[in-house]
Write a structure and sequence with these properties.
This protein has 3 domains: 297 residues, Delta-Endotoxin, domain 1; 193 residues, Vitelline Membrane Outer Layer Protein I, subunit A; 164 residues, Galactose-binding domain-like (Jelly Rolls, Sandwich). The radius of gyration is 25 Å and the shape is globular. It is of the alpha+beta class. The longest helix has 37 residues. Keywords: Coiled coil, Membrane, Sporulation, Toxin, Transmembrane, Transmembrane helix, Virulence.
């Protein structure tokens, strides 16, 4: 632990973010990041990293040690920010800066190199020495200036009426803001944008959080309202700029990984999974840093689904000659679920079969049972996944009410590795309500001696491997496909982030964001892929389309405002019904040119008219398109803003934003 961490250990390590009132279960650790996850990566150069990545033994898990440290660090950062997002207290902001500084600038001078090496290993393209050294030196300077700003903030926290402490923190804010503005272009050097993308994302995240501080505390520091408005406007503009850069070069890297993979689906999937965690999960939080929209604690959820490596023999991708018609698209279409409304995996029925006389009995096919948020468990089921031929035995895995946070699988194969299947597995479960744990185990009558053990898991926020009290992802789907003339069965496990609330809980003292894909039922609606910046997919309406969302209110006495975040290429009219009120909503175009390639600036917010709603009459929200013409819009999320003494700031922020808009329009006119 470095000197800064020792100095602040008691101050930050004992911070309790009160998970009991959050969107996660009570089985949760306290924050913040106490360990230095990058120690094992110090003094690791690019070639060493590539060797570790290419020779990684999946019997030890899904990552090499070094890659896991990068993943753990990124999960820690995004999960911690989610837990603290919108807390309007100075002590919370000081704590956030302390945790982020410890995570990104521990005692080592080369702590940022693992991020660079990690991306290089994924796309097999090296970052040249000049670009690497330039970035590292600028990061060193940023760390020093961030430390000075943090110290000034802490000093002001102790004496908020002192003019000297106000002036110091104001000056340090402006100096640090200037350095971010100057140095961020270094982290997008042309030709190396992908290799530097994880670094760029983390630095952009810090800059946006810094600018948010000006909206929160600028008046207390002695800033003029004009200066505060200028910083806010820059934050909004930079949110779009930073978001679009991250999404654009994430996609460029994804295409590079696909070109590298040929028929090796795991290479492509590794990039998608790991860069979602290190880049897109953090980018998805940027829009929620808008203090004028989110001046109080805000509940955010990441609904994206990512897949751990295929459960197969070590050389499974080298045997395409057994089935020449199988290509990359075959794997992608069978091993990854297409965009879908958010679901909860309740049960899996598995049927074993004989793959061959060599491999003996193994996982043959399965059916997933699931429900949408607000439905009863086991409300829906998938089609048969895998092969329904030559059944041998039946296995029933009941997950209702539990999270699967870790899976151990044993793959049986012949010596060459072209005949294979899963012959044994352990699912590690924890009950969402009472934290009780159990393990569901299955073992077939496989007799082959060639076996490969695979652990499918994600690091916890403070534990590696994850534990029942500290895990970041839960199993959401099991996919599979037969290849090689029906003699080899590949499985893949889909996972969602633990921030997702099973009940769509609405809190009386928080702004609650509910992604639109978490509906309970829908008619004539379509799920389309998210652009990468929304933390999940989007919902579009077809002709006569409608969706219902079920909510669980902590109290029915609190009144709420409701708003939606959406994107549109034309003027649309939707109808909504909630708590006995039926209204039509006119939605203006947000300026989007296409719903298939949405940019950050293409999204807008609309607050439902007629103001205030009370959930005493019901807990179902319905949004409908009664037209026979499909509207040209998509919905990202629905938000509930409580109206009480704690949200008076929201009303003040609305008035400030309204006044600023009027002034800006006068200048434009």
């Amino acid at each position: 632990m470095n000197s800064y961490q020792n100095k602040n250990k008691n101050k930050y390590e004992m911070l309790d973010t009160s998970r009991k009132s959050s969107n996660m279960s009570t089985c949760y650790p306290r924050y913040p990041i106490a360990k230095n996850p990058q120690k094992t990566m110090q003094n690791t150069n690019y070639k060493d990293w590539i060797n570790m990545c290419t020779s990684k033994n999946l019997e030890d898990g899904i990552y090499s040690t070094s890659a896991k440290d990068v993943i753990t660090n990124s999960i820690n950062i995004s999960s911690y920010i989610i837990s603290m997002l919108g807390m309007p207290y100075l002590s919370s902001i000081v704590a956030i800066w302390g945790v982020l500084f410890n995570a990104l600038w521990p005692s080592s001078d080369n702590q940022w190199e693992p991020y660079m090496n990690h991306v290089q290993g994924l796309i097999r393209r090296e970052l040249q020495t000049f670009a690497r050294e330039q970035a590292l030196r600028q990061l060193e300077g940023l760390g020093g200036n961030l430390d000075l700003y943090k110290e000034a903030l802490e000093e002001w926290e102790q004496d908020r009426d002192n003019q000297t402490t106000k002036e110091r923190v104001r000056d340090r804010f402006r100096i640090l803001d200037g350095f971010f503005t100057q140095y961020i272009p270094v982290f997008r050097i042309q030709g190396y944008e992908v290799q530097l993308l994880s670094v760029y994302t983390k630095v952009a995240n810090l800059h946006l959080l810094l600018l948010r501080d000006a909206s929160m505390f600028g008046a207390d520091w002695g800033m003029s309202q004009t200066n505060i408005n200028d910083n806010y406007n820059r934050q909004m503009n930079l949110t779009s700029l930073y978001t679009n850069h991250c999404v654009d070069f994430y996609n460029q890297g994804l295409n590079e990984a696909k070109a590298l993979s040929n028929s090796n689906w795991d290479i492509f999937n590794d990039y998608r999974r790991e860069m979602t965690i290190t880049v897109l999960d953090i980018v998805a939080l940027f829009s929620s840093y808008d203090y004028r929209r989110y001046p109080i604690t805000t509940k955010v959820e990441l609904t994206r689904e990512i897949y751990t490596p295929a459960i197969a023999s070590q050389t499974w991708s080298n045997h395409n000659h057994l089935s020449p018609n199988i290509n990359f698209e075959f794997y992608e279409n069978n091993l990854v679920r297409p965009p879908a409304f958010f679901t909860w995996l309740d049960r899996t029925e598995m049927f074993s079969r004989y793959l061959s006389t060599v491999v003996s009995e193994a996982w043959g096919g399965h059916i997933n049972h699931f429900h949408h948020t607000g439905e009863l468990p086991l409300s829906s089921r998938s089609g048969f996944i895998g092969s329904d031929q030559r059944r041998v035995a039946y296995y029933d895995f009941n997950f209702v009410g539990n999270d699967v946070f870790r899976i151990y699988s044993r793959v049986m194969s012949n010596p060459v590795g072209n005949y294979f299947g899963v012959g044994q597995g352990d699912f590690y479960l924890v009950n969402r309500d009472n934290c009780n744990t159990k393990t569901i185990t299955f073992t077939t009558k496989a007799t082959n001696s060639n076996q490969r053990s695979i652990l499918s898991e994600f690091p916890g926020e403070n534990s590696d491997p994850p534990t029942s009290k500290d895990y970041s992802h839960r199993l959401s789907w099991i996919s599979g496909a037969f290849i090689g003339s029906d003699i080899a069965n590949v499985l893949s496990y889909g996972w969602t982030h633990r921030s997702v609330d099973p009940n769509n809980t609405i809190y009386p003292d928080k702004i609650t964001q509910i992604p639109a894909v978490k509906l309970s039922s829908a008619s004539n609606c379509t799920v389309i892929p998210g652009p990468g910046s929304t933390g999940g997919h989007l919902v579009s309406f077809d002709r006569n389309g409608s969706l219902d969302m079920q909510f669980e209110f902590i109290t029915t006495q609190t009144e709420y405002r409701i708003r939606i975040r959406y994107a549109s290429i034309a003027i649309n009219t939707l109808f909504f019904s909630f708590s006995g009120v039926n209204q039509s909503i006119a939605l203006n175009s947000t300026g989007a040119s296409s719903l298939n390639n949405l940019r950050s600036e293409d999204f807008a917010y609309l607050e439902f008219p007629y103001g205030i709603f009370k959930p005493a009459i019901g807990n179902t929200l319905r949004i409908s398109n009664w037209s026979t013409v499909a509207p040209h819009l998509v919905i990202d999320k629905i938000e509930f803003i409580p109206i009480n003494s704690t949200t008076a700031k929201y009303e003040r922020m609305k008035e400030i934003e309204k006044a600023t808009t009027v002034v800006n329009s006068l200048f434009i006119n």
